[in-house]
Every structure is written in structure tokens, then in C-alpha cells.
Fold each of these.
Amino acid sequence: MTKDFKLDFSRRGLLKAGAASGLVAASPAFFMRNAWAEDFRNNPGNAGEVKLGFNVPQTGPYSEEGKDELRAFKLAVKHLNGEGDGGMLNTFKPSSLKGNGILGKKVTFATGDTQTKSDAARASAKRMIEKEKVLMVSGGSSSGVAVAVQSLCQEEGIIFMAGLTHSNDTTGKDKRRYGFRHFFNAYMSGRALGPVLEKEYGKERRAYHLTADYNWGWTQEESMKDTTEEIGWQTVNTVKTPVGAGDFSQYITPVLNSGADVLILNHYGKDMINSLTQAVQFGLRDKQVNGKNFEIVVPLFSRLMAQGAGEAIKGILGSTNWNWSLQDPGSQAFVKSFGAEYGIPPSMAAHTCYVQTLLYANACEMAGTFYPPEVIKSLEGFKFDGTGNGPTEYRAEDHQCFKDVLVVRGNENPTSQFDLLKVIEQTPRSQVEYDWKIFGGELGPYKV
Amino acid sequence: MDAIFLQILNGLDKGAAYALIALGLTLVFGTLGIVNFAHGALFMLGAFCAVSFNKLLTLSTKVEDTTVTLFKAFKEKPYLEIWFPDAGPVLIDYAIPLSILMAIPVMILIGFVMERGLIKHFYKRPHAEQILVTFGLAIVIQEVIKAYFGANPIPQTAPDILAGSASIGSWIGLGESVVYPWWRLVYLCFSGVLIFGVFAFLQFTTYGMVVRAGMRDRETVGLLGINIERRFTIVFAIATVVAGLAGVMYTPVLPPDYHMGMDFLVLSFVVVVVGGMGSLGGAVMAGFLLGVVQSFASMTEVKAVLPGIDQIIIYLVAVVILLTMPRGLMGRAGVMDD
Amino acid sequence: MKNIPMNDVTRLLIFAAVILTMPIWLIPLGGGYPDLMQKFAIYGIFAIGFNILFGLTGYLSFGHAAFLGVGSYAAVWSFKLFTMNVIPAVLFGVLFAGLMALVIGFLSLRRSGIYFSILTLAFAQMSYNLAYSVLTPITYGETGLQLSQQDPRLIDNLFIEEVSTGLPSTTLFGMKMSGYPGFYFCAALLILCFFISMRIFRSPFGLMLKGIKSNQNRMKYTGLNTRPYMLTAFVISGMYAGLAGSLLAITDPLAGAERMQWTASGEVVLMTILGGVGTLVGPMLGAGLIKYFENIFSGFDNNVLTSAFSFLPDSVAEVVVPVVGLFVGGGWHLTLGILFMIIVIFLPGGIVEGISRLTALFRKRQQSIGGNMTPQDQPGE
């Protein structure tokens, strides 16, 4: 409501105000409650509690990921309120978190279902903002949803801490002042994989891309193409596949005799599971082409989804934001308290959501207020460590986190059902950094 | 040439799945006059028969996993492997073909319960209400499966002996490089047998004859003193079994998840209608036709000329056929015209 | 409703009063916030429009979401290219949806029954698949079509020198169209649409359509060419969908491709059947119910449940909360599925039928307490 009645002395503003005051007269008084008292959206004021909104896919193909994100959020809330063993609160530094909620207020939360559809995600975010009066929205498992919710949050003046979103656009051409992404992106996947691919498979390779036919797939394909061509590989062909194709055989058979010796699957989720399973069934992994072993690369690997591909993931290279097998104290502390709570290790989606929640809370503590522009300023350029990926920075120019990226391989001899991915390289941050200007886009204003 | 041959195989394989689902759908429609939106869910239930059978075989005791040090975790060791160290793993390896044995009675039971408990009350209700109730049922079935098995796909492996690819190129003189996975060939043959079986049953048995007569004119058959309703229950059970077995055999190709039925539902309706409502031969023909056309449209050479054609080809073909042939490929007059 | 004698003016007035007071009576139901009320009104328009085709002619279109999507895209493009004023956006949305309905309707109406349904479905699915992939330059694919600061906005820029940073909002001559004003705008249009639909139901044109529904052949034998009537109904209903789509874009300037998916088309079919096919208010009720479940039930989690059942003793609550938890939050689909089945099994004719049965029962009680049940009062089979 505040937005509609802010003071604005431009000519257009006066026009609007005139129209608005007509409406004020017409509508019952209780709609206007607190309209003048608040100085920003959903100001908790003197309340003893603050509410955060966790918007995750609870139905649809990504609901397992959503479930895991929700587990992480609940854990983060617990730790922020000083319950449990504290998890990463003990390793995160520099930390202003005191374990007594945020700015002394107890943290509570509301949940919503994105259904992995941008419409539903926005509706659910709006419910949390308008009805539940949340101060921050977080979560999600796809870039389409992240971009949609992020722009909504910009308009509403609510901070959005993105969950799993890997497209370059989220902090590229669609970046927003109120949106922040801790997760890595397609470009960084490409940069991280390049040297490993060169080392493992050599310079003389011919790559064939199968790409999910939508924004994320295209950015992933572009990044992989650039990287592999830089190390001297040839690109035989790039083929777009419809999302949710199910059976990919008609795209896989042409690979067999194309002369390519590497197949790059720019797929995620169910598409990845199906295309990888079927590619292995077609015997690609047993093939010899140009005197070399045929290889398959999955640029974005998620342990949770990889389970669905079963045996097929063995020996497949890919990149991931985080994996629970990391040995640094931050990761260990997190895995320990997550495992103790739920009996399973956290996924990378859970990790990023957990960290995002802590980062938001910490930024509020640093700013000393919940007032979004100040919170944003304390997040911008914030350097921290102890969250699992080494020293990390929230770049001020595009709100993208820069940190080490993991290159992983599907484990040939898993020791447990969770031990699916093996980290073979922790690509240092410097190698995946890029100039923020290359993707265009504008952050927009602090004050909305 | 190689590429075209392989695409034909791909298309037939895909078409086999479409045809099997569409066959049951059109059978139920032709005999019972029911538009069954839960038919996709039956396909999914079949796939989960395989999953459950696999689970049953690999029923496990929990052994503490010592490799996980940070918290208490458990890994599972199947009883079967503990009790029968030799035969156990072999049995588990053949889980999918064996689960057919379980799927048949289970699917018959499901079909029976569904028809007697719900569908039969909707014979004379408008199609719109049939759609609503079967769609509701499909959602309920899905959500129950999701609550128990989770939303992630569950990988199923074909027996080791069928794991690799067959070098069919050398069989027919196309060269060594033309290979095709064994399991997909098995699936193709299996579908052929199943389709043939259903046709033979309807064509060559007295039972089938009565059913076919019932499809033409239910009232007259009823007047002859034949209990057509009971026969229709059997027909529904047959449709259920066909969908279920298609689901079982498809699991190694497509790791099953709770939503796979919905993914196939719309396509199978398109197949049924393109074939002509209530026409079994039409459904099978349309299934294979659309499968093959889809495969060809996905070829790079075709996509270079018409970008994105593989996204819409099935619907495009459906539109063209329906606009040129009023009742699909082999539909009869008077069925679902109003 | 049919038991209460009422003329159309009172009907309209009651309808308008109920819609406009929504912000008050929805608060106890937990739905009294602008976004949900906007959705009620918008999907109400969508379903009412769908009912003009399905309820009157019996032609079941399974591709109506395509018109919704086109309406949204047209509206957002109008914001981007011309002006943030909502009037042109509404006009463009309705216009483009109408044009598309004309083309699709012209082709699809050559067939009837399920052949018609599958034709419309095929057209809608083609639109969706293309919008998601190949047409990305126009639709922005997966991320959806959004406003940006670089938009030309030709008309706006003629009159107003751009000073503000940040994205402009949609306005009706200066009044912002988000929040409550947005709801009232949608509500006003909903009432208008309801009125038009009522007039159509009562008009000779409407009777003609009903005639086609009951026996198309007989209508043809009287020498009447039914096609133009069908096409008109199809286009009108497509324009309703386009209006709903443009309103979606007005209250929230973003258009995503999944608005055109078959599930979205299926949703409006379900809304209409759930509420009551061919009744005036039924589709609106169905739309409200489904949107309520989608938005409110999905937001319940165990915390909410625990506090809701806190009046129970702990031991009871420990059992009740997890059981109820299966039906809310991530399980809201399950509740919806069960609801579909219960309503259609026990109330053929949808919610409206249920209401009229209740009133009938109530009246009978008044007339003769303990009176006999007529066969029609038994649960429908």
C-alpha cells in the first residue's frame, strides 16, 4: 500500500496523487491502515518477530529439490534463533549474527509453492508479501522463476535472495537491485570445466551439444561452446531439444555417426536424467571415436537429480555449486547439523538457500535496520568466508557471488547412496570471474 | 541411409509406447463410452509396479554406513543377497521382466476396482463429468504415489544381458556403425506381441465378438440377453493391463516418476483422436505414424529448414489429418460426433 | 438458484455487491489480500467467457489458455511500446485474442465433439511450445515478457519527460493498477462481463446456441447455417479470455509462456464443470474455489497447522497434524483431486446444483417437516 501513497512532487506524481486521493475517499478506511506510519514495505516496527518468505517448488518435477530447500530454510531459522548447534553460524565470518534472531527479533517464516511456473511463483510471493507481510523472499529451483520473482520483489521493495538459479540472466540482463544470487551461473560452469576438460580429454576433441530449448539451455550452451573452442575443441553440432521431451532417442542416434567424440548435455532436471540414461543405453560410453573414448559431459550436475539417472552418471564430468563431501569447517558444520536433523546430507540447493538466509540476516545486523536500501548496501561488496566455497564476495555491480566452483565426476565406486559425486577440482574464484558488463542489464534504484 | 533407418527405429519405438497407451484409451472409449483421463495414471501405475517389485526384491536390512562420519547414516543390503548369495543378485537383475508377472494381476485388480467402484456409475453421465472425475482420480493416484515414492525419478535397469547395443547394422547389411539398444528392440517386439494379442482376442474369440458387437450397438446386444456390462468390466481390465505393461517395460528407457502419466496423457489423446475415436486399428496406426514423423522432424537437416518444427510436429500433423479427414484415420461415423 | 424467483437486475445487483465487498468477507477466510482477489476476478472472467462457448453450445475447447496467453503478451507489448495506461492494453489484449480466436475457431469449428477439442488443444499446444522456444525474441520464452527501463513507450514519452528511475507501473490515467485499485478495476470489468454474459444467455442469439447444443442437425434442417453462430460464440469467448489475460498483465506486468500450456486450458474446463456448466455464476464459483486452494492451501505448513490445532491436547495434535499435513502445503493437489471427485460424484451439475439442492431441501423442510425424499434428492449416480 505504501507505494501507492508515497510523496512524489513531480507533475506525474501529483496527477497520480490526485487520482489516488479520489480513491482514498472512496474506499473504506481499513484498507489504509498504517499507510502513513510505515516507512517501508512490511516494516516490522515494534513487533517481536520478523517473518521471512520461503517460496519453493512443492509440486511438480522439482518438488524434491524444493523439499530439501525448505529443510535448509527451517534449519537456518533455527540457527538464527539460537536453537540447535548453530551450524555455519560458528564458521561464518565476519559475522554480526548473535543467535538471538535478527536485530533481536525472533525469526518466523511463511512458505509457498512456486510449482516451477513463473505465474504461480509470483502469485505465491505476492501472497507472502501482501498477506503474510514477509520482509524477504527466498528459494526457487529454476531461472525462469527466479527472474520473475526477482522483478516482482524489485517492484514491491522486498529483498529477494535467489535459490537455485543457474542462468546468466539472473544477475546478467535481468538483474535487479533487490535480487541477490549466491549460486553460480552457466558462464562460471564453463570457465571451471574448461581446464579440467583439457586435462582429462585433451585438446583434440569434437563436441556435440544437446541443449534444452529455452533461455537457460542457450546460455549454458554458449558458455560451454566458448570454453571448449578456446581449448581447441571443434563443435560438430548444437541441437536444441524440446523441454520435457521424455524420449531423446531421435536426438541421440545422430550423435552416433556424427564423428563427435564428446557429448555435452545442456539439460537439467528430468531432461538431464532422461537424456543421460538414454545416451548411455545407446552405448555412447563404450564407443571409440577417432581413436579416443567417447565421453559425456553434464555441465550442471546436481546430486539430488543425478540419483534419478542411477548407474548412468558414473564417470561423467560436470560442475556443481557445492557438495556435501567438502572438508572445510563451514561445509562440515552444515552437513553435521543438517544430517543430525534430517538423517540425509544436504543438496547444493539446500546449501545455497541456507547460506542466503544467513547472509540476509547478517546484512540486517550490519545495517542495524531492516530498511531494504541499507540492507542492500551492506550486502553489496560484502566479503565473507566459512560458508563452504572459500572466500566469497557479493559483487556490488551485479549482485552475483564469486567463489570457488567445484568440478565433479560421477563416482565409479560409491561407498554410500549419497556418495554420488566426487569432487575432482575446486576451481579458484579468480578463474571464473568475469566483467559484469558483458551481460548488460541494469540494477535499478535502491528506493522504490 | 543409416540415419534414416535409425530414425525409423526410434519412431517405431516411440510409436509403440503411444500406441499401447492409446489402444487402451480407445478400447475403453469405444466400448464403455468413457473418456478416461486417468488412463495416463494407469501407465504410471504400471511403471511403479516395476519399481515396487524391485523394492520388494531388494527389501533390505539397514547396515550402518561407516563411510559417513559426520552423522549417523545407513546403507541398505537386500535380504535376498544375504539369504541367497548366488541366486539373489540374478533375481534382482531380472526384476523388470519378472515384475510383469506381478503387474498383470495387480493391474487387473486395479482395473476391476476402478470400473466397478467408479467408472460404471459414469456410463450415462456427460463427457464433461467423466473428464472431471477421472482427472480428479488421476491427481489422487499421482499424489499418493508421490507421497510414498517421492517426486524424483527412480532409475530402473534392464537385465545385464540386455544392457548393451545390438549391432543390427551388420544383420541387414548397413555396416557395423548402426547399433541400437537391445532393450528398445525388446520393447518394440513386446509391444507388437501385446497389440497382436489384443486384436486376436477381439477378433477370434466369441468373447471378443460379443464385445465388438457391443461396441456397435449396445442395446441390441443387451436385448439378446447377454450381460454386456460384465464383459465391459473385462474390457476395462484389459485396457488397464495393456497400459500397465507398457509402463513396466518402459521403465529402463524413462526412469519413472509420479508425473509420467500426465506427460503422456495429452499425447495419447491426440493419438486416439487422430486414429479416429473408438477405432483400435486407427489408434495403433496413428501411434506409429506420429512416432515416426516426430523422429524425422527432430533431425538436424529438417530443423535447419524449419526451426522448432520438432516442438510442434505432432500437433501439426494432428491438425492436418483432422482437417482433411473428418473422423481421423479410421474413425467411424456417429462416434463422439456430438 | 432456480427455486428463487429473481429478475436479472436483482441478480446483477447481488452479484456486484458480493464481488465488491470481497475485501471484507474474504478476511475471515484468509484470502483478503489484493493479489488473490484480483485472481478471483480475472479467472472469473476467463471462466464466464469459457462458459459462453461450452455452456451454451456444448463445444468443449481444450485450448482456451492460448487466448489468455495472447492477451497477456499483447498487453505487455502495449506497455512496452506505447503507454503504461491500461486502456490500450485491454483493447490490444482483447483484439489480438479475438483475431486468434477467429482463425482457430474458423478451422476448428469444421469438426465437432472430441475432434473439435483436440484441434483446439493442438493449436494451443503449438502456441505454447513455440512461445517457450522459437518465438523467444517476441515472448522472452521461459523468463517471460517483462517491462524494462529501455522500453520505448512512445506515447508516454511524448507527454511526460522521464524522471523516475525504476520501472513504471501500470496506470489508469494516473491511478496505479496494483493492489486494491487493481482489484476494483478487475472487479468492475468482471461485473460488466457478467452482465454481458447474462444478456447473451437471454438473447435470441443465446437461444440459437442452445438450440445448436440440443440438436445441431435439426437446426441445420431448418435451413440455418449454424457455423457463423458458433464462430461468433467462439470469438466472444476468446475475447473474454484475452481480456482476462490482459488483466493478468495489468495487475502484474509479466507474461509467461506456461499461461498457454494445456494444463492452463484444462484448469478453466475444470473450473467451469466444477461450478456448473451452463449456469451464470457457476464458472465464477469454480474459478474462485480452485484459485483459493492453489493459493491458500499451498501456504499451510506444519507450523501453521500446529498453531491451528493448538486447542487440541498434545497427544491428539501429534496425530492430527501430520495427517492433515498430507492434504495441505505440497499436498494441495491431493485435496483438489479429491474435491473434484466428490463434487462430480455427489453433485452432478457442480456447485450451483449443490446450492440449489440445499435451498430446495431447506424449503421442503419448511413446508412439511420430515417429508419424503424424492428420488432426485438422493446422491447422484
Amino acid sequence: MWNTVFPYVLSGISVGGQYALIAIGYTMVYGILRLINFAHGDVFMVAGIVMVYMAASGMPLWLCIPLVLVATALVGFIIERVAYKPLRSAPRMSAMISAIGVSYTLQNLVLYITGGLNQLYPTIPWISDSVTIFGATTKMVTIVTPVLTVILVVALVMLINHTKIGMAMRAVSRDFETSQLMGIKINSVISATFVIGTFLAGVASLLYFTNYTTVIQTSGAMPGLKAFVAAVFGGIGSIPGAVVGAFIIGIAENIIKGLDIILFKAGIISGPMGLATFSDAFTFALLIVILAVKPTGLFGEKTTDKV
Amino acid sequence: MKKVLAIVMAMMLILSAAAMAETVKIGVFEPASGDSGAGGKQETLGMQFANQETPTVEIGGVTYDVELVYADNGSDTTKAPSAANSLVDAGVSVVLGSYGSGVSIAGSEIFMNASIPAIGVTCTNPQVTAGNSHYFRICFLDPFQGTVLANYAFKELGATTAYTLGELGNDYDQGLCTYFKQAFEGLGGTVVAESFPTGTADFTSYLTNAANYGAQVFFCPVSIAYSTQIIQQASSQGVTFPILGGDTLDSNKVAEAAKGTNVQIIITTFYQEGAAPEFDEGIKAWLNADSEAMTNNGGNDMIAAVSAMGYDAYYVALEALKAAGSTDSAAVMAALPGVTYDGVSGHIEFDETGDAIRSSAFVKKINNETGEWEFVAEQTVD
Amino acid sequence: MNNQLTKKKIDSATILSAVIVVCLYVAVFIAEQLIAPTSMLFTVLKKGATYALVAVSMNLCNGFTGIFSLGQAGFMLLGAYTYGILTLPVAERVNVYQYYGGGLVQFTLPWFVAMLLGGLVAALFAFLIGLPVLRLKSDYLAIATLGFAEIIRAIFQWDKLGPITNGSNMLRLFPNFNDFNIRGADGQVTVYLSTLVPLLIAGACIGIIVMLINSTFGRALKAIRDDEIAAEAMGIRLASHKRLAFCISSFFAGIGGAMLAMYQSTVQAKGFTTAMTYEILLIVVIGGIGSVTGSCISSFLFVAASEWWLRFLDQKQMIGGFEVPLLRNGFRLVVFSIIIMIVVLFFRQGIMGTRELPDLFRGRRKAKGGAKS
């Protein structure tokens, strides 16, 4: 039984780690601006495309990787300044629509640049190598991802808890206006949030596209949505929550893909049910259930709206 | 010498400009973006090459310039009707395409209402031409292709359990998987069929499923974008079963993805490089001279079967125009059933539903060392 | 407030607006008889009518009630499938449900009944999903409804439901807009109605929505949008009003889905993605959140621009022997997105803000009186 299930769990942990890195960006931005940054998944995709073009230009990979991360962070910074900052005093719906507009723009821009064709992601040595653990063969990146995710999350939590900018972030997410009155430079805190979030999305894109090597303009949409669901599931605003949520969603999604055979081998069903169809939908079903039962998510703080 | 040439060229340009009034438009209804974008572009290349080779056609004693009018259906059945409409609006006499059966079916109604005939190039689903009189096609059909592949898997590869994987809502994938399943089970094998949602990138679990079911072949007639992913992930998982596919996998992108791996890939297709050396040479020279065409072909000059099919489709359209003796689309439609043509991909003749009568398919496999397609056999079904 | 103030006697601006709308319909009817039916104009009008209805239905939810729902594509899917499944001629079912032996449903309903049922099915699902979801706050609600649309899409693609939904495969060969044309005995079209009828359907539905918005119920919805707590204090029952608005909006989205099926002449669950919802949301934003007229105008503009006027951007253009740079496949969409971003950032009111067609004719009076709806 374990031999049947293990490969799915392995795939799930790998993709879950990547969702986690994207989810952190969502949860941080939401924590501070109360904005679902719909464009975050597309920034992740843009990071992939930038890597493809940089590698194609003949640049060595050791130079490409840091440049991609810097470029991604820059994209995040620019998006915030251009599309969200002017709307800071507008209703929340306006900023969300702007986010959808940015997502639409990024996708169309990439469609135009690539001509709508799938781009093959460059092979990053070592993490692309095959490796066998417990009888399941996979890419090295599958093992690297969760480790790297945990390291980055610990570093991020340290940053938030022990540095000045981190304290400012916490203050802003707690009370926007008051922290402004206390002399915190709101704009730079928000920019820093976006830079950190998109930087992590850049890391996620390196790992994700090493595993699933094709980039197209819509590549970011589904991982983005799932990462957001993970953030909500874990309790929005909570970084550990987002990470736990992402791993749960990644594993659950892959187990659903193999649920037919698992149930079949366990003797519960007699033939294939086609349950793999629901691998994406399950994530959203989970979302609706968690929102109905515990709207603040697993680790979310209980908040009450002031009148 | 150069000057003389320039003057002659200029004269010709002026002359042709004078005769510009006589233009016949052929619609190219192909995806240039989306999952099938790469395949659609390669199919269009064949037409463009043919158009460049034979830019005029004599219809009823008058020489017409042939103009290709493009519409990108985006590999998307919801975008297909309006793309089809833009061709109708442009006043095309005949339509070529599309790569992908779903978009062809989605655009079909528009062409029918405008009485414009369409020549399917590589859309292999029976539903494209069934029950209508305006859609024709020059390629073989899925029941045939599915049977060929099932026979090959069962008899040549000795497989008894097959796993099929298609994209949800892709008529091509679903059709071919079904026909493969029917044929394979008819031979006495067992088939497990699964589908993945559009936009899936992670196929590792589906590969694991196949292994868990004990499949000896993995049949995935999916679009190029998905198949390259599947091949790479199969390689990193170290799968042992061969991957089988239909004509969509016949692409240099797929060959590139399989290069240097241990994954065995076997497909059926319409054309094998070398079958028509003159055409091979011509299109390669053109690809190497035209950087945009080269990019659209995926960066090298390997000839895709769909390009050969696009090339033949263009000439079939010209034959139809000649036979009709008019650029009127209804006349072309009336003339099409009687058209015969010997193309690079073989003899083309239509049966009463408008399908080409074809009895053989090429079986090819990838040489994992060189990353090139190799001819295996020419397969027929009795 | 104008509408309420002048409720008893219909003012001249309203009459003028009605005359304009009637004139437009007459113009379409005449144009349809004179211009070749293959013209892009009619494609734009047909698709525009469909999108206008869906956009107005979304506006009813998002603009007038303040329920930020992103489930539109899901409700359209329900309407489109209901319509497609129920109107498919029995004789064709064997061909369409080719992998499922002709399917389970073996009867055919008239198009009008099937379209209404499409709306009702969408409304029923809206009711069910509304139970857990409508309690949520703005952005949580948005993401939950968006997720709901994705779930619906997966369910309709499930192989086990194939005998009803044809699995993930295409439904086709059901009556479409062209069947509205009146044909003579020889099969030739005598009166072209394939554009007028969809415009009439959309017009009638939008008319009903406008009447709703101007009723007591509509004013209650606006009160909820502006301040939930105040509205509740005034005795408006929040939950039931919200639920009803959500269901009505979904009903018309379902009808819009059925119209989309008729326009496309095929239906496939694969097409009803979140991208479709986003497109409709952007139409609503461009038109002005809270303006029915705006949604209608921007639907036609959006469709015309994307399908017709801007198509030249996707192809190489030569002007005087000079090749215009940048133009190639996809440029149209880039230009389009930039326009949308400009509207979103700098013209947040959209085309119409919250004004309606009659308001345009009483512009001055309003400025003086300062009354604003």
C-alpha cells in the first residue's frame, strides 16, 4: 500500500513546496493591503519566461539565476507602484480589479512576446538530475524544494520578527492608519513586501519549471490560484499557515490524481472512476469548505469588524 | 548584371501590380497560439511554402494571384467561430485547416452558412466531416490511426495492458484514445483510460498511475505542449514503458525533448522525410533562408509531417479552384468531391463523406541519441 | 434618484431613450436584410448582445448589490449545457454522444423552454452555493465563487456523467441563432432575423433587470451595497435580499450562457474558464460599475474592438511600402490590456459611471439639482 501511495506523496511534497513559496507572496500582500493580488501567479510565470529568454541569449546559468530573481522582484515593485499605489484610497474592489487587469496584461504581453508558443525551460544542472528514494525515481528538485522552502520560511520569519522592516510590516498589517501616524513609511514597507513576495515567487518559478519544463502565458494562473487557496486555507496573513496549507493542497491534489488506483488496490472500487478529473476542483472544494467552517483558516487570527 | 536584374524585377512588379485586380483568397484557419500553436504554425508553413512556390493559379483562362488570409483560432473552441467569421468576412473562396479537430468542428458551422468549402489538413476526428457536405479532409481518420497504433502496441510491442491519457475536452485526444481502446480491447488487451484537465503541468502522478496499473504502453496522443512535458517527466521518473502517440507528436519539439533520454517514443504520422526528396530540399532551403519561417518551425529545418500536409492541402485547393473554373466558393465546393491530386504525402481522393481515401500510415520512432525521427514501418489495416 | 422622483409621470428623457432603443432595433432589422449575413457586423452584434446580458447580470450582483461574485463563467456553463442538452434533436444524439451510445436524454424541448430552464438551473445552483458563500466578505466571496465555477467545470467534464453531459466532449448540432431566420419553401432565407432575435432576447432580459433595479427591491439592494449595517438597521433583510439578487443575477447569466451556446453553435466545458469571467468583469468596469447602459455599450465596444476593429493589429501592415513595426499575432491583446489598465487606473468611473441612458438627456438639470441616483 505504502509503495503505491508514496510516489504521489513525493510529487505532492514537491509541488506543495513550490505552491508554498508563491503562497507567501499572497499572504504577505493580503496581510498588509487586504488585496488579493491576482497578478501574483502571473509574476511567477513572467519569472519563468525571463529565465527562458536569458538562457537563450547565451548567458551562463550562474548569472541567469540571480538576475532572474532580481528582475522578478523588480517586476513586483513596478506593478505595485503603477497599478496598486494610485488606488490605495479607492474601494478595495478597485484594487482587486486592477490586479485582474495586471494579470490580463502580463498574460497578453507574454503571449505577444512568445507568439503564444510553449517555451522550453533551460535545464539547471544538479537539481534536474534523477534520484531514487524509497523505490521512487524523481528529480533532485523534488527533494531540494521542501528543504529550501523551510530554510526560506525560517529566514523570512526571522526577518519579520527581528528586524526593523519586519516590525514595520507587522505594524502596518495590524493597523494601517495608526502605523502611518507613528511615522512608518507606508510606501517603502509595502514595496518591501512586494519585493520579498515576488522574490520568493521567482525562487518558486526556478524550482517549478525545472520540474515541469514548459512555460506559456497561462502557466501561472492555476498555480497562482492554488497558492492563494493555500494561503486562505492556512489562515491568511500567517506565513507558517500558508506553507502548511500549500503542502496539504499539493499532496491532496496528487493523491486525487492517483485515487482511482489507490482505491482500486485497496478493493474499495471495482474499476476506474475518473476521479483524476477533480484534481484541480478539489482544491476549490477544500476552499469553500474551509471558508464555510472556519473562515479564518487553520492558523488565522480571529478578527472582528469594527462598525 | 545586378542592375538589369533589378529593372526586370521592377518591371515584373509593375506588371503584377497591373494584374493585381485578379486575386483569389484562400483562408488559413490555423492556431497560431495556444496549446496547438506550434503545430498550427508548422502546418501553415507548408501552405506558405507552396504559396511561394506557386503564387498564381489559372482559373477559367485568367491568371489569379493567390493570397493567403490568416485567422488565428487560438487552439480554443470559443475563439474559433469569430476567427472563422473573419475569414468569411474577408471573402475567401476556400478554407484550409485546422490543426486540431475541436476547433475545426467549432468553425464548421460558420463556413457552412457562408457556403464556403473547408479542407481539413490534419484534423483526424470523424466528426469533422460527418454529416456535412462542405468539410473535406486530406488526412486519415482516428478510427484508422487508433487501430494502427493498437495493432502495433499489441503485436509488435507485445503489450497486453495499455494506459491512455488525453486532455479533457480535446476532441482529438478523446477520440483517438477511444478508438485505440476499442481496437486494443478487440485484440484481447486491457486498457485503462484517464484524462487530465487543461493546463496541467504536473504529469508525474499520471505516470505513476500507469506504472501502478502495470501498463506496458503509455498512449498519449496529446498536443505538443503536453507531450514534451510528459516525455521529460517520464525520463526523470525512469519509466520503462514506451510512449505511443498520434500524428500530433510528430514534431521536432518532441524529438528535442526526447533527445538524450531513455524514453522510447513511437508514433503514427502522415509523412516521413525522404518520401519526396524534391519537396524536402525545397522547403529546407526556404526555411534556412527565411528566419521567421525557421522560428515558426521550432528553430531547425526538420520537416514536420503537418507541413507536408499543409503543402498538399494548398495544391488540392488550387486543383479545386481550377476545376471550379471560378472563385465562387459554392462552385469550389461543388468541384471538390471530384478533385484528385498526387501530393508529397500520397494520392488524395475524396470519398462520399469528403474524407481522403487513405489506407496507410507511417510509423516512426525517435532515435534518443540524435534526437531525430526514424522510419519504422508503413502500416496498413485490413 | 431621478427615476423615483419622476416615477408617476414618465419624463421626456425616458421617452427619448425608449425611442432611441426602438430606432436601433429597426436599424438592425433593416441592416440585416440589406447587408450580406456574413459581415463581421452581425457577429459583433450577436456576441455583443450575449455579453451585454451577462455583463448586466454581473453588474446587478457586483455593481448594484455589492456582492463581488466571480462565478459568472460557471453559471453561464450551466445555462449553456442545459440549453445544449435539451434542444439537441433526438436524431442527432447518436452522432453527438458518440462515445456514450446516444446519451440518456432522449427528448427535445423547444429552444425557448430550454433557455428558460438553463436560467433556472443556474439560479438553483446559485441558491445552493449561496448558502455557504454569501455569508463571506467581499474578497473571500470572490475567490469562493471563482472556485465554485472551477468545480462546476470539472463536474461537467467528468466521464461518469458522460451520458448526460457528453463528458468533456463538445455538444453541437442544437438550434443556433441562424435557425431564427425565416426560410421560404425552397430553403432560401426570406427574412433575416438571426441578429435581431438575440438582441431582442437580451433586450427583454435587460429590461426586466432595469425594472427590478428601479423597484423597491432594487433600492434595497443599493442600500445594502452602500452600507450593510445601516441597511439592516432600516429593516432590510440582508440574507434573503442578497440571496435573491445572487439567484436573479445567476438566472440571467444562465440565459446568457444559453445565448452563448447559440452564438458558438457548440458548447464545451473547457471554454468556460476564469478568463471568461475576468473578461466580463472588465467589460463591467469599462462600462461603469453600477450602470446598465454602460455595461451594454462597453459589451458591444469590447466585442467589436477585439473581434473586428483591432484585428488588423495582429497582422503585418504595410503603409506606403513601410512595414509598421510591432504588429504581429497577439499585439491586439496587448493594446487591449493597456487600454483596460488605463480605464481601471485613470477613469475609474468607466464610460457611464453610474448614469443611465435617460440621465444623459437630463444632464443639466441633474447638475443643478444635484440629485444623483
